[in-house]
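Researcher: Good morning. I'm working through a list of sequences from a screen, and I'd like to move beyond sequence-only analysis. For each chain I'm collecting a predicted structure so we can compare shapes side by side. This is the next one on the list. No need for commentary yet; just the structure.
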Amino acid sequence: MAGIGFELNKLARRDDLMGIAGAYLHSAFAIAGPWLFTVIALACTTMLYGASGSEEMMNFRGVIVYNFSFSLVLSAPVYMIMTRYLADQIHVRNVTTTPTVMLESLMMVFLFNLPVAILFYVFYFEMSLALRLAAFANMFLIAGVWLLSVYLTALKDFAAVTRAYIIGMVVGVLCAEYASGHTAAGMVMGYNIGLTLIVFLLIARVFAEYPYRLTTEFAIKPFFQKYWELAVGGFFYNAALWIDKWIMWYAPEAAELETKMRFYPDYDSAMFMAAMTILPSLALFVFSVETNFFNHYRRFYGNILAHASLRRVRSFHGKIIESILEGGRNLMLLQAIICFLAILLAPQLFELVGMFYVQLSIFRLGALGSFFQVLLLFSTIILAYFDCRKTNMWIFVFYFASNLILTLVFLQKGFEYYGYGFFLSSCVSFLLSAVLLFNHVRKLPYHAFITNNNSVQVPNVKTSADYIA
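Model: Good morning. Structure tokens for this chain:
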């Protein structure tokens, strides 16, 4: 993502307000395009339709939320591997396989989502044929957009990408409202038109940017074997973000539609609103915090490769620590301010967007949980730079398990405790990640020269004692 940050920094240095605003806008779509599309399109469709509590609207929202959550979790293993693959290929300046790998990874994502789509829309849910088909297609379109977002790293044409999302969002909302007949199937189909437009615009940009011939070689297979921890970690991180919502769909206050879809609108809406509070911090991280850290990171390892003196290496080691502390402080301060304002102004925000005051406590706990989620992301992304794949994987497994257990515990205590599971899980997981990060960074020269140095790795050779045993 640092490559994205450098490009956005150029835009922000235009010395005018539009340059800075454009950098933040492009950054937001670069890191959360599918999420923004879904949340804004749902909100606009609900406001235009008016009757958000009607059965057709509830079915429409249910399909979108189910597909959004499950496609994200199921697509995560592929797009995590793809992120590493593209980063490695860009590093060695060989992007000739990009179009082929894009189509390969799309097929993999579709295969990963296929069993769940069949389970939901063929066997389990009770829907009309039109709604089944529209929902089935919607799941694959959302999964495709999740994956194609990874190629933003390679494209760096943020104007085209942001334009694709905005055009797709406008078309999707208008079609869902005015060409749907106000039926769930019609609204999902209209929404699908907007998603299809985004998918084709992004694919077209990839082919235009990388006009290389397609090959039959399965280029990313070795990366799944070598970087399997990324796939597992990506799955558990995204599952951790959704496991509390899935559990709360079975709370006593949750609703079950005639289609057999279950969800808890009060919890889901409050948590979605809370999740939106992290966007400014994520934008800051992409084009400021991460790029500042990456400059010091690159100099530290560059000096090692150039056989610089130990004093110079230690000097840049100190600067890496300073950049992490400074970036973490800035990120924490910004998110703390946003979180404080969100909690303080929650009643006014709820009146503005038409939410119910009964959701206030859930929203406030969600905002606190999102505060620690941003810091957790910061820690794990920095760990990823140092190739701590297994460390990150276990952090995300812990995040998932803690959110699962704590949400179940607080579910039994009643409504006033709803949201505590996500908040406490995010807090404890961040503390764990922070301890592991600074423990690793403190010994960074040792890791650079010893643990990550293949030339000093001890081969797995049997000794005489092994044969005696």
